[in-house]
Each structure stands twice: as C-alpha cells, then as structure tokens.
Amino acid sequence: MLARTTAVTKITTKIYYNEQKVKAQQAECIYAANFLQDAADLTPDDKRKRFNDALELHQRTIYTGLNVVLQFAPQEQFKKEKLIAIAASYMQRLGYGDQPYLIYQHTDTAIPHLHIVTISIRPDGSHIRTPFTAHLFSEPARKAVELEFGLVKAAGRRRSVKKNPSPARRVEYGKLPSEEAIADALQYILNNFRYRSIDELNAILSLYNLTAKIGRPGSRLHKYGGLLYQILENGKGRGAPVKASSLPFKPTLHYLKTKFAEHKTPDPIAIRDTRLALDAVLRENPSDHEHFKDALRRNYLAVPNNLSFKVPTDDLLLINLEHRVVHSIKELGKYYDLPSIQKRLRPGETNQLSQSPIQQTQKTKQKRSL
Asked: pTM of the full predicted structure?
C-alpha cells in the first residue's frame, strides 16, 4: 500500500473535488466516520456543514485539514468493507481516528485507491498535530496496516532499473501506477535523447505526456534543487507529481545537469538534417498550424505538444525524431526565425511556403535590386 498525506487550507475544495468525481460516476463516498448519518444519507451540503461547524471552533489555524490518498496494488481489488477497515486502521494510527472524515473510493483509474478528507480541529476546539508532520506518522502507520491486513508492501514494489528499456510510448494516466509509468518512459527517454536544458527536456517529455518541474524561482522546490515528474493529460498535470529521487535510477536535477554537459556541443550533422527537413515541411505549403504539425511529423520532426502559436514567443524548439535531439530554430541559421514561419502560416499567405527561408530572402533581395 502506498500512502500520501497533504496539508489542506480549504477543506471544502477537497470535498468539491471528490463530489465532482461522484457526480461523474468516477467515485463513491463509501464511509463517513464520526458523522450523525451514514455516507449514503449525506448530501454534499451536509458534509461541508459538518466540517465548517468544527472549523468555527478554531479560526486562527491556516492548515485546517488533511487529504490522504491510499493506493493499492492492481491485484488488490477489495470489497468496500475491507477498504473501510483498512482506512479506519490507518487513520487511527495517524492520530485522526476520532476526527470526522470521509472515505471516497475512486474508480477513474485502473489502480485501486481511496481519497480520505478530514479536519485537524478537535471537538473541544484544540488543534490536532499540524498536518505538515502527518508524513512522519504516515510511514509507520502504513507499514503496520500492511502487516495487519496482509497487503502488498510498498517497499516490495520498488522497480529495478532495466538494462535495455524498450522505446517509450505515450503515458496514459490510470493505465499503470504513475510512478511505474513515469519510470519506464524516463529510463528510455533520458538515455536515448540529447537535451541541454530543462526546456529542451520538457519539449521531448511533452511528446510522451510527461513534464519535469523544478518549481518557480523562490519556491522551496527551486531553492533546494528539487525535481518532480508528472503525467500530463490534455496539456495539464494529472495525478500527484513523483519525486525524482523516488524513481529507481534517481533522475534528479544533478543527474540531468551531467546530461546537459554531455550534450552541450551541438551535432552539426543533426542541425543540417533538421534544416533540410524544415525546408521540406515549408515546401508542402501547410495551410495552418495543424497542417504544419502534420508536415513536421512526416519529416521526422515535432514541436512540443503544449506549444501554442497564439502565445508570443521569440523561439521555437524542434525535436528531430531521427537524430533524437532538440534544436532551437535559431541554431538553424539567420534565415530561420519564428516570426517569418508564423507569418507563412497565416491564412491567405500559404503561397509563400513553397520556398525555403533562404530562397525567399534571396528573392526579396532580387526585387530590391530592381
């Protein structure tokens, strides 16, 4: 069993999230602990009111609640009664057994898991141990529950490094445990592509529905050189990010920096081939951005999946899938710049695409000389 705890400032947002899942028939509230009514008889308003009444007793605390996720092995398809017993035992060991909490069984992925929402304000108005320290008690609680119910141990599910990883496929959230899916894809990508920065790596990762996060400047993650990987769905993060240090081969920021240094010197042959491939794309006269992306794929090129031509930018990263390398269009030569490419993709101007940037510049110079 895997257990994850997160401190919560607005408990109602967690109730809303889970109730939306219930509404979409992707979850079910299977138990309401220390409520006056059974879970089946409670409305979303009843649940919010129960928590809000308790919060009125202690209004000075910022982190008033705790969100818990318990994840089981794929083969552990338990009945509701056992899931409730497991969750209740865990919450008791965590120190929240007498608190009101809601257990939601989620069915939106192939991995069985529970979401538990609770508050840290006791009935007498005192504040239970801060949610930020819950993780200190979570590990021994998890291990005890694993032994009590004979669950697959989280420690025994650690994945080993593959000697010859297969080519990565696009990761789909929910098909495999997130950590397993991310580890499998990263082991191939990080060892078979050339990248010189986080931006270049993320350009590649986006093709596989992944992203690497170093945090905003000033954030705790950024300050201490942390790194998280997350699955993307429709360009947005889905599921909890995974720490780089928790993956089998430790693809941390320190590890990536050694790769950046290895790939620092550009490959002139790859640059030449990327330039020729881009010329071939432009000769296809793509009429809009989608046709442009299709033409890129036919010529073994790609742009990041999250790229938006509507957002102003002065650069464009091209992934050469044949050489498995990333190039900025600025590296292709002075005749290749993003504004001129964007201009050619505007409706009514597709006739300009039949020539390469170099040919168009030469034609413009000839007109000026006349």
From this structure: 0.66
